[in-house]
Amino acid sequence: MININYLPVLSVMLCFLAAFFIEIFGSKIAGIRRFITLVATTAVLIMTGLMFKPIMLDGGIVAYWMGNWEPVNGYAIGIGYEVDALGFAFTVLVALTCWLSSVYALGYMNRDHHMAHYDTLFLMLEGSVLGLTMTGDIFNMFVMIEIMTFASVALTAFRAKQEGALEAAFKYLVIGSIGSSLNLLGIAMLYGECHTLNMAQLSALLYGGLTPTTAFAFGAILAGFAVKAYIVPFHTPAADAYAVAPASISMVFAGMVNKAGVYGLIRMVWIVFRAMDIKTIQILLVVFGTVTMFIGVTMALAQHEFKRLLAFHSISQIGYVVTAIGLGSALGLTGGIFHAVNHTLFKGLLFLCAGAVFYATGTTNLDKLGGLSKKMPKTTFCFLIGAAAISGLPPFNGFASKWIIYQAAYEKAVESNNFLFAIVTVAGLIVSVMTLASFIKVTQAVFFGQLHEEHKDVKEAPVSMRIPMYIMSALCLCGGLFYNVVNKFFLHPAVSTTVNVEAYINRMMGDGYAAQYGVTNIAVEPAQFSFWNPLVWLALFAVVFCAAAIVILTGKRTRGKVLTPVNADPKYATFFSGEQEEFSQVGGSDLFWGFKKNWAGYYRVMTGLHSGNVNDYATYTVIAVAIIVLCMFIFMR
């Protein structure tokens, strides 16, 4: 029987070897390609499942030192693969997402050409993200980031003849390369200062405080992972990439690629640099996260292309995760990890539904769709579950994780007597309401209303495409109904490992190693949360009422005026979506165009900032990086 410690490196090697074999043996035979891909993703999912008991139930760490290069004289020289509960939580997301995507692609990608390269790039992408979540070496993490970035760029441009595909890939390449360069710069500076690349040893060495060099390195690495997580203002390539990539890849981007950035943020700020007790880092993450969730949802509400709309919602939901991480509490971390998991499920489901619509109709333009519930009832049902989950409606998983985040923000506001954290709850509720409004628009535009004449012969998506949709729909429901089980066997072990850094260091470097540097655990209480406290529901109602009042009062007064839709550049248009007027039951080209008319000033600014010019996007990135690094020097201890 295979030693359990071999499983991490075997999982990564299997993906890379399968990609190699496809190029050698399956480049011209579709059956061989599909067989190798499906076997590889299934085997990785099984190997990941075998690690559940020793990690999540027994509280251990699955560790393997490449070439048996274990620490010598207190220094880690070799590359270590180390999977603790935090890494395992994200590894599960990678394995599950890629397996579902490979099943979905059996039907969805059968009309595309150059499929040999698709499967090769897909497996390279899976292997790289697996390597990132399971490695204990920070430079090996960078190597995996590079493979992930270039595989993602190639998959974004896979349908090269589709309008905007090559442009989106170029933007992804430019901004992604900036993020990778920041990571490499920070890693090089850390190595020069600490003479090691092992994250457990780095955590022990950095425990005494940061020097100017390590503070700069921290800022660079933090910004680098923020780019990979697509938080504002690093989010600009995501909308284009998600929109033009095949749906089976869009769900992978939303389900695991941006989670690689989230995982890196958690690993760095909570474990390696131990910075979550620093108020500056908390405020920095909370501000970036709150801005991300708001800008993401407002831009989503204004879109008229199905997948582009979902892309902005993906950005918005990552804002929830980053905000929760930045609260610096066990409850906040619980909510952040839970919402990251839930986001993988409901956003992956929604992208698969969008792919099914494209497969059946050949378009994802909301103005050209309508009435598909008559022809695609099963896809419609799955979409409604995903829409309810992302909008935070009970009893689905999105409600459970958002509730925990609201409670964590409220407790942080009371504990710190800081009004900023109270705003998070209000902002989160406003974003949830706008998310629901956006998906009401999509539901009306795509699935209800009048069926277009050209779609009268549309058929339901193939079974191979529906199976992943059914699985993700069931998980969205189970995550909300059985949140206590999820917390006990999944969230609690991940959070406990994250805050118990002393045990992590000793497990990797040897017993007593952490004590040599005076390492102690961050003082956080175990996460406690309840959804059904009547007093909390009363407080929630008050906050919702205030949030609604803010939205109404901040809008431009239009009483007595005639509102007309605003024309915009068709490529970056933000004021049109929904069905054409002659097909619409609500009599307008967009269900909420009146609201957006009231916010026309805001949307003019956002449209200008989302110019489509990669030079502008690179400038935003550089400015944001400068702000992050400056905060490290001015406000950190």
Q: Could you give a short description of this structure?
A:
The protein has 637 residues and is an all-alpha fold. It is built from 25 helices and two strands.
Q: What does this protein structure show overall?
A:
By secondary structure, the protein is an all-alpha fold. The chain has a domain at 276-481 and 533-556. It has 25 helices and 2 strands. The chain has helices spanning 7-25, 30-50, 52-57, 85-108, 115-134, 138-156, 165-194, 199-205, 212-229, 236-244, 247-272, 279-301, 306-326, 330-361, 377-390, 397-416, 419-447, 463-481, 483-499, 501-509, 513-516, 534-554, 593-598, 600-609, 614-635, and strands at residues 62-65, 80-83. Strands 1-2 form a two-stranded antiparallel ribbon. Helix 7 runs antiparallel to helix 9, helix 11 runs antiparallel to helix 14 and helix 15 runs antiparallel to helix 17 (419-447). It is globular and about 75 Å long.
Cα(first) to Cα(last) distance is: 50 Å
Helix fraction bin: over 70%
Main sheet overview: 2 strands, antiparallel
Q: What is the number of helical segments per DSSP (H or I, 4+ residues)?
A: 25
